[in-house]
Amino acid sequence: MAQYLVLIYEAEDAYTQASPQVLDDVYQAHGRFAERWGSAIVGGNALQPSGTATTVRGDVVTDGPFVESKEVLGGYYLIEATDLDQALEIAKAVPAPYGGVEVRPVMVFG
Amino acid sequence: MAASPEAASAPEPDAVARALDDAHRREWARVLAATVRVAGDLDLAEECTQDAYVRALEAWGREGVPRNAGAWLTTAARRLALDRHRRATTLRGKVPLLVEDALPVPGVEEAVLERLEQEDVVAAGGEVPDDRLRLVFTCCHPALAREAQVALTLRLVCGLSTAEIARAFLVPEATMTARVTRAKKKIAAARIPYREPRGHELAERLDAVLTVLHLVLTTGHTAPSGEGLVRGDLVDRALHLTRELLRLMPDERELRALLGLGLLARARSVTRTDAGGAFVPLEEQDRTRWDAALVAEGEAQVRAALRGGLPGRFALQAAIAAAHTTAPSFAATDWAEVVVLYDLLGRAWPSPVVALNRAVAVAFRDGPQAGLAAVEEVATAYGDALAGYHYLPAARADLLRRLGRRGEAAAAYGAALVRCDNEAERAFLRRRLAEVGEPPAAGGAVGR
């Protein structure tokens, strides 16, 4: 088994302008995902909007996310899978209606 | 020394070299694929396979060429891989192993050995377990960039050197080496599995394999640059691989279509250049010199691929190729059928290149004036995508020439020449340019 971080990148605007119904739908979709793939999910969280981000580079602290882009990191899951194909199958089920996800293997030391 | 029962006696050095060469072309993928299962790592498998071929040169020179060269090489390469694992026991825990369904966990050496011996028993019977599909599907995994898929397939499945692949695809060797290295690292680090795709995955994965094979085929059919028009070695590698894959997946109609398409292209390749090496257009090719056997086989494959449901994009391309080979002459080509096939192809595979080819077919069905209008439509719709594509001004030039608009034709031939890097095609364009006269002095209209 190996661990993969599934990073969810979406357009934040879509959520700030979305109706409560849409937000509820996405929330429910995450619930169904967690139910379906519960055994593979090691952890995960939604993040506060990128406007709340603070960047530290060296010892310089600045306001905002590390990279400015239309689709920003909004949440993540840490999953466990036998190989990339299984990780991708799980990643395809992660709700990300306003963007997509990036799958990164977790580096193992030792 | 008495020859072993497997071997012929007193081998000629030439015969050994030929056998080895042959084994390299035919058996490389099979040997490497079988070795990956023991090595668990592509780099190690590659080294051991290479080593096995080096040892073969010596051993076969001494003992004769074995009847089953593939089995000999596979056994040798796998033993080398296992030796390396044994010697590196301390390292073994750290080696990122390729994920494979049935491969025992590293460290369970007995299990590996036992399995190896079982497989050797099978090998002694002449049948080496065929892992090539696993290897091909690993190289063409959708998580790898297209150019990495192509490079890995040519390197690992076809056994081409990185330098050869770099030359074929017009990139510096260092770039190609970096590309291959990066792809191998991703396979190990992201755990891209070494297995055949299952069920629903197969269709999407097969499409990547087909695209890679098609790319190798077209690159060989018309080299993107250089002196010669055709790189026959690339075409032959792609054809060989396609044929082998079809043997393993006989029901895949698109694979069969691709084989048909490749065979028909190969059948015509001798007539595509003149004695001086310049490109000869289809219209002027001597059809009596087409390889009749290849045409017959190609057409049979195309017919088989077209049976049993909606044709895919390769079946449609192959059907177009067959429309040309079955026509008794260029003038007698069924252009109406060709246009219909391009219409279908444009729907199955929307692409500016398909649209341009359709426009050319329209010109032969309805005359150069209608063709020119169709070409201009394509230029308007896809201008940016086709900006560096010399076949667009070349098509325009040809139609202007047929309409007797010599000055405009010359300008368009000039525009095509600026964008064309293949010497054989340039020679043809220069010949046509001379026929219609030099471009007008105000060459700025050529556009750049």
Layout of secondary structure:
The complex is a heterodimer of chains A (110) and B (448).
Chain A: E1 2-11, H1 12-16, H2 20-37, E2 41-46, E3 54-57, E4 60-63, E5 71-81, H3 84-92, E6 99-105
Chain B: H1 13-39, H2 42-63, H3 69-87, H4 89-92, H5 109-124, H6 132-139, H7 146-157, H8 162-168, H9 173-189, H10 199-221, H11 232-248, H12 253-268, H13 292-306, H14 313-326, H15 335-348, H16 352-366, H17 368-382, H18 391-402, H19 406-419, H20 423-436
Helix pairs in contact in B: 1-2, 1-3, 1-6, 2-3, 3-5, 6-7, 7-9, 7-10, 8-9, 10-11, 10-12, 11-12, 12-13, 12-14, 13-14, 14-15, 15-16, 16-17, 17-18, 18-19, 19-20
Which structural class should the secondary elements of chain A be placed in? alpha+beta
As an assembly, this protein is heterodimer
Query: How do the SSEs of chain A run, as a string of H and E?
Result: EHHEEEEHE
Sheet of most strands of chain A: 4 strands, antiparallel
First and last CA, distance of chain B: 72 Å
Distance separating the two termini of chain A: 16 Å
Query: How many strands in all of chain A?
Result: 6
Shape category of chain A:
flat
Helix count, DSSP H or I runs of 4 or more residues of chain B: 20
Shape summary of chain B: elongated
Instruction: Give the neighbour order of strands across the main sheet of chain A.
Output: 2-5-1-6
Could you tell me the mean pLDDT of chain A? 94
Based on CA atoms alone, the radius of gyration of chain B comes out at 25 Å
**How do the helices and strands follow one another from N- to C-terminus of chain B?**
HHHHHHHHHHHHHHHHHHHH
> How many strands of chain B?
0
| Poorly predicted runs of 5 or more residues of chain B | 1-8, 101-106, 442-448
For the report, how would you describe the main beta sheet of chain B? Answer: none
**Coarse structural class of chain B:** mainly alpha
The portion of residues forming beta strands of chain B comes to under 5%
Protein name (chain B): RNA polymerase sigma-70 factor (ECF subfamily)
InterPro entries (chain B): DUF6596 (IPR046531), RNA_pol_sigma70_r2 (IPR007627), RNA_pol_sigma70_r4_t2 (IPR013249), RNA_pol_sigma_r2 (IPR013325), RNA_pol_sigma_r3/r4-like (IPR013324), WH-like_DNA-bd_sf (IPR036388)
Keywords (chain B): Sigma factor, Transcription, Transcription regulation
Domain RNA polymerase sigma factor 70 region 4 type (chain B): 137-187
